Amino acid sequence: MNDEKILEMFAQLLQGQTEIRGELSEVKEELGEVKNEILQLSTKVEHEIADKLRGLFDAREVQTNVNERIISSLDGIEAKLHSVQVDAFRTLRKTR
Q1: Element (H, E) at 2
Q2: Taking the chain (96 residues) in consecutive chunks of 10 residues, what is each chunk's mean pLDDT?
Q3: What sections of the chain are H helices per DSSP?
């Protein structure tokens, strides 16, 4: 091989290396953009999940309060029913 041929091949190798570096820079830039988008999406999902969990917790608290009021009301009704049963039993005993 002559020197011109070697220099031409060397120039082609350098040009190829330059192209590869340029493409690698583009890939790195795109990867950075993808990472940023993933981070933004992840943050958004975390906030949405946190909001939904807070909503579920609040709903559970409200339901617990409603259940406590219902149980309290049922206890009162049960006490009144027991009183009515006792009165009815006494009335039946007197009439016999």
Answers
A1: none
A2: 88 95 96 97 97 97 97 96 91 81
A3: 3-95
